[in-house]
Amino acid sequence: MISVIVPTYNEAENIRELVERLHKALGSNYEVVIVDDNSLDGTVEVAKSLAKKYPVKVVTRKNRLGLSSAVAEGAKWASGDVVVVMDADLQHPPELVPKLAEIAERGCLAVASRYVKGGGVRGWSLYRRIVSKGAVFLARLLLPEARAVRDPVSGFFAYSRECLAQIKPTGLYKILLDVLVQCKPRCVVEVPYIFGLRTRGRSKLGTRHMLDYLRQLLRLSKWRPLKFAAVGASGVFVAWAVLYLLSPLPPYLSVAAAIETSLTSNYLLNRLWTFAERKTPALIGWLRYHVATAAGNATNYITTLALNILGVWVYIAYLIGVIAGYAVNYILSELTVFMT
Ligand code: GDD
Ligand code: MN
């Protein structure tokens, strides 16, 4: 038995065609669980009338709690061992559902993917493409669990009901990220599809949801970017102390010593705190941290000395140097030193 979970908000114009096409694709031994958040356009009435002819369950909620929580709710009402999650607006082709379900029945997470060979999007502006690729890049950068997937923000996927029913959504929309991090599927299979154009009704996602997405990434990454920044800030105080103690020495030496000392204290704090759950060998990690932060430290060293020569007080010059090296360091640490 396959349960197709469909979150809806004002999709009255779409769900009839959706259910008809699902019925054609799945035949029997399936159900559709529609989870509606108090739509104003009569979605529930249409869903209830469909339920007379097709195996449709209608779950209604009083408040608009978001797509992710609607899906988690739907999983609690579903009776299949395998659930397929999809949008109501036909941008996800119902004809792909049997294939996704089959993969999930074998125990793997099945993801309908825009970003594997044969997949894509139709009619998107350059801006939307860039935003989408940026979202995917950030997810894969910050969440090791997302690196196995080319399209970790897909809203069209299949997996066990058991996993979905116990998910605690960390954001409003991207429940696949929660599945990846909270359930840690042992295998993922991506199936290409073309994300179609919405022909009826309106999209519910807007620019204001970007902030929600970033918050979700921070939560799922256990606030690593912020911890890393806090450690970096502590390193500035360590470096200032070294600069102060070594102030009789010429800056090209004292700045180098300040960088090396703070590098080591930063590494230790990141190992014990920011990336505590990753089993990084201490000494090898320390050496890798040198390699990973080399570009940032070189930037810092050159910037500090140059500003100092221009007459900037060495402590302030150092602070500016650190900021210049920070972004480079973070990205390289994620991708090399603390990689699992
Ligand atoms: N119950 C409920 N509550 N459903 C909602 C809510 C809500 O607050 N907000 C949106 N939905 C439903 C919509 O009715 C639709 O069925 C589905 O969630 C997706 O909403 P859209 O507004 O059509 O989203 P989109 O097209 O911009 O983005 C979709 O595609 C992305 C790319 O695959 C979403 O499915 C994303 O999750 C997906 O990543
Ligand atoms: Mn849509």
UniProtKB/TrEMBL annotation:
GO terms for biological process: dolichol-linked oligosaccharide biosynthetic process; GPI anchor biosynthetic process; polysaccharide biosynthetic process; protein O-linked glycosylation via mannose. The keyword Repeat does not apply. CDD domains: DPM1_like (cd06442). Residues 3-165 form the Glycosyltransferase 2-like domain. GO terms for molecular function: dolichyl-phosphate beta-D-mannosyltransferase activity; metal ion binding. Residues 227-338 form the GtrA/DPMS transmembrane domain. Its EC number is 2.4.1.83. Gene3D superfamilies: Spore Coat Polysaccharide Biosynthesis Protein SpsA, Chain A. Keywords: Glycosyltransferase, Magnesium, Manganese, Membrane, Metal-binding, Transferase, Transmembrane, Transmembrane helix. GO terms for cellular component: endomembrane system; membrane. It is a multi-pass membrane protein. It is an enzyme of class 2 (transferase). Belongs to the glycosyltransferase 2 family. Transfers mannose from GDP-mannose to dolichol monophosphate to form dolichol phosphate mannose (Dol-P-Man) which is the mannosyl donor in pathways leading to N-glycosylation, glycosyl phosphatidylinositol membrane anchoring, and O-mannosylation of proteins. This is Dolichol-phosphate mannosyltransferase. It comes from Pyrobaculum islandicum (strain DSM 4184 / JCM 9189 / GEO3).
